[in-house]
Design a protein that fits this description.
single chain; 329 residues; alpha/beta; Rossmann fold; nine-stranded mixed beta sheet; 15% strand; globular
């Protein structure tokens, strides 16, 4: 078991360093469609070994949100699974109206189809909300839980029927805009102003992330499930149920998150019985992309059984040493 002092609670450098491993992988060899509830789900899988690690993306995201993380954990000896939620990326829209409860059931059913037993579930934003739902609905499915700027708390007070109505009215335009961006993702990612326009609410420093990584984040941006998923986010209170999560939980947040307030990290830590939080300075909504090296080391130590991962980089606490034998890239 890793000791608390060995855990990397310092965020380290911003953005990837050197050439990222994902750029040299033929992802076509790892992708396939899996039928769940009569719909095709786009699944990406690599690596072997237990415990498996399952990544769940957020609103307007896709499996590519985990490009900086999947190769690391596969090389570290884990079976790694990521997928597009129904209505996002290349996955079909679900038969029923999108809901957080049904997304939780979808994750359970998908992992059952894949033969994935108890897993480490890692969710960002809406994906964190869904991951908590899986941990509550299907506790035997989740060995450990990692919440990265998870939605579900503050957003329950932000429902606005007028705005939702306007978004539904303009949904075709939103999809057309997403298709336009996705088709030009490489060119847009190379333009500083376009990068800032697309990502300034999501990451702390759009100009410091590599253009190829940004291009992959917006490549499949015409998401038909966006408005329904946003509706679902604001219509499913979960606060009173967090006490039912029985697995160890790691809460990771960016101090500069502009989408989900950092105070929610404190609430998740308080409300989940066995939870610890790490808050990184100068980091936005997607810590796994903004601080990939530190994120991978932190989650790896947590998966390997470290119990005390508490640390708040805003206060300057935390160590930087890796656990012995874990210097993997």
């Amino acid at each position: 078991m890793a000791s608390p002092a060995a855990l990397p609670t310092d965020p380290g450098p911003y953005g990837p360093t050197g050439r990222s491993a994902w750029m040299d992988i033929d992802w076509r060899a790892h992708r396939r469609f899996v039928e769940v509830d009569g719909r095709q789900v786009n699944v990406v899988e690599m690596g072997v070994g237990d415990p498996p690690i399952v990544f769940v993306h957020g609103l307007a995201g896709s499996w590519q949100n985990w490009l900086e993380n999947m190769p690391h954990f596969a090389a570290a000896g884990h079976r790694v699974v990521a997928f597009d939620l129904p209505g996002f990326g290349l996955s079909e829209m679900p038969r029923e109206k999108i809901s957080i409860r049904d997304y939780g059931r979808l994750v359970d059913a998908l992992l059952d189809r894949l033969g994935v037993g108890p897993a480490v579930l890692v969710g960002n934003s809406m994906g964190g909300f869904i991951a908590t739902e899986v941990a509550i609905q299907f506790p035997a499915r989740v060995e450990r839980l990692v919440l990265v700027s998870a939605a579900g708390l503050t957003i329950e007070y932000q429902r606005d029927e007028r705005i939702l109505g306007m978004l539904r009215f303009g949904q075709r335009l939103l999809m057309a805009w997403g298709g336009f961006v996705g088709a030009r993702s490489d060119a847009i990612a190379r333009r500083p102003r376009a990068r800032a326009l697309l990502l300034r609410l999501v990451v702390a420093h759009p100009d410091r992330l590599p253009a190829p990584l940004i291009a992959e984040q917006v490549r499949d941006a015409d998401n038909p499930g966006f408005v329904d998923a946003l509706d679902a986010l604001t219509d499913y209170p979960i606060r009173s149920r967090l006490g039912g999560i029985g697995c160890p939980t790691l809460v990771v947040w960016g101090a500069e998150d502009r989408l989900v307030p950092v105070r929610d990290a404190d609430e998740f830590e308080r409300l989940i019985p066995d939870a610890r939080k790490v808050v990184w300075r100068d980091t936005g909504h997607v810590a796994m992309l903004e601080r990939p090296q530190a994120f991978n080391r932190l989650v790896e130590a947590f998966v390997d059984g470290a119990r005390d991962v508490s640390g708040d980089a805003r206060a300057g606490r935390g160590g930087e040493r890796r656990r012995e034998g874990a210097a993997r890239s």
